[in-house]
Amino acid sequence: MVEPLVVLIVACEIGFWVVLGAGLFTRYVLRKPKVGAALLVCTPLVDVVLLAATVVDLRSGGEAQTAHGLAAIYLGVSIAFGHSMLRWADQRFAHRFAGGPPPVKPPKEGAARVRHEWREWFKFVLAWAIACAVMLLLRHVVATPERTEALSGQMGGMTLVGAVWLVGWPVYYTVKEAARRGINA
Q1: pLDDT, tens digit (0-9, with 9 covering 90-100), for 42-67
Q2: With a threshold of 0.85, does the pTM exceed it?
Q3: What percent helix, strand, coil does the chain show, rounded to 5?
Q4: How far out from the chain centre does Cα 141 lie?
Q5: Residues whose CB is less than 8 angstroms from the CB of residue 122 and which lie 6 or more positions away in sequence, other chains included
Q6: Which of 41, 75, 175, 185 is most buried, most CB within 10 Å of its CB?
């Protein structure tokens, strides 16, 4: 059986993209930039709904499950990457519907790529910090350690993802760029 909180997480993810799409559609296709901007400002409300539902579920006697940790991770990722996701979508809509310039692509090589990879990884670190803070807050709100054990495992899992990301991208491109500069120096 699917947990109601998992359904809410999926609904919030869909809701985020629906509100984002509605804001961009209103801004560029309907040519109502103020209404579109107002809709775009509403995207964080989806996160507030999810956080409130998670707290209510746990406060009403629920035991922390994977879904509660996923809600915290979703919130962290949404906050840390939300602005860049909005910018990504906005560039594509502006290009497609308003004659804007082509979307900016990440650099392929060199120092610019290294900076890009480190910037993205630090966004992950911010998402990790927010998710862990929310999970710790949920543990505090519940105040019964045995009802919140699942959250500790998810903090560890997210830490592992961050370590793999660190080595796989920012460190890799940093070493690659250092080697390239050493050869060309």
Answers
A1: 998 998 898 888 888 888 877 888 88
A2: yes
A3: 85, 0, 15
A4: 24
A5: none
A6: 75
